[in-house]
């Protein structure tokens, strides 16, 4: 859609925006919000930097490796286009960007939606006033049509010593429950079959609002982790919980999983198991209590899948600490695990806690960790062989497809490779029988 230049009598071309989104799903939701606003204002979104009126790069600034990727993406955009606006987490330190790339047009920080849109306006004004019918009610989504990320809060009020997210994104700011539920309703009506609930600290949802209620349909709904999960479960789609800090009240949502209200899946970043390291990280430091809770969760919900992330080589980590971590893996028998070698982050208190662990020791521990967990994950996958499951199809190629069961989140976990006797469509649920397992994935036959 475009305006008409009355003087010339010719259509006024829509300006073109090329967009790069880097980092975590939280940043992806930020990108979706920015793109939705720009599209509503008549900007055309293009995949090519060449020919675009301006390029927007949404950066990640958490680790040095992520910063390097962001700076590389900015450099590529400048080389291909020359007109670049930078936003996102790395934009919290604009001098770092401008030192590397002085030619960028503007730099805005994370969650600065109005600022980045204003910078686009300055670089290339919109063709017309906003027309909201340019975008669907659920907004522009960068995920496949059948699943979407649902961000319930911004920022984080924890002070983990290895993390600078509060410096980049501020303290926890929860959305009112009714706002979250209205967005979820729009997504479900648009065909979304899986809602992936995200934030920096999902289980702290509502603390800053003192659990204040807001009107939803014919009742008031509290801004509380359990209440929100229960309400989301009423939409009849898959609801998956990510970034769940292991507070005691997390136990309350496990019965919802056992009842089938929400997916039996928890993404909990335990980070370590050795009490000394957890204390230095400012994380919960009760290994035995954590193991007892994991056992309790599985007693309540035997189908529960648990994914977690850990850090090896944290400053001061001893061989004894690392051994405790390996022992924890054996006891917890987590389904999916990610592991990172500690990387010093500018401004993180952990850098000065103790002497750094030598790089070669980090590398050796990382390999030992991954070998141990790979064997655990393989055993848990093998135990699913012969079972029947419900799978959401992500990609299809005629009679073969790739999908995910309840225990697999998109992009970070494994997949189920499918074979059927009829064409399989992306975005549909299918019933399957699991035939075999490999190190990370399952293979299954579609039965219905």
Brief descriptors of the model:
disordered N terminus, 448 residues, alpha/beta, 22 strands, 32% helix, Rossmann fold, 5-stranded mixed barrel, pyruvate-formate lyase- activating enzyme
Instruction: State the helicity in percent bands.
Output: 25-40%
CATH class bucket of the largest domain: Alpha Beta
* CATH architecture descriptor text of the largest domain: Alpha-Beta Horseshoe
The amount of beta strand, in percent, is: 15-25%
Task: Compute the number of structural domains.
Answer: 3
Given helix and strand content, the structural type is: alpha/beta
Strand order of the largest sheet: 4-3-5-6-7
What's the alpha carbon Rg, rounded to whole Å?
A: 23 Å
What do we call the CATH homologous superfamily of the largest domain? Answer: tm_1862 like domain
Q: Which stretches are poorly predicted, pLDDT < 50 over at least 5 residues?
A: 1-11
Shape: globular
Q: Report how far the terminal alpha carbons are from each other.
A: 43 Å
Give the averaged pLDDT, no decimals: 92
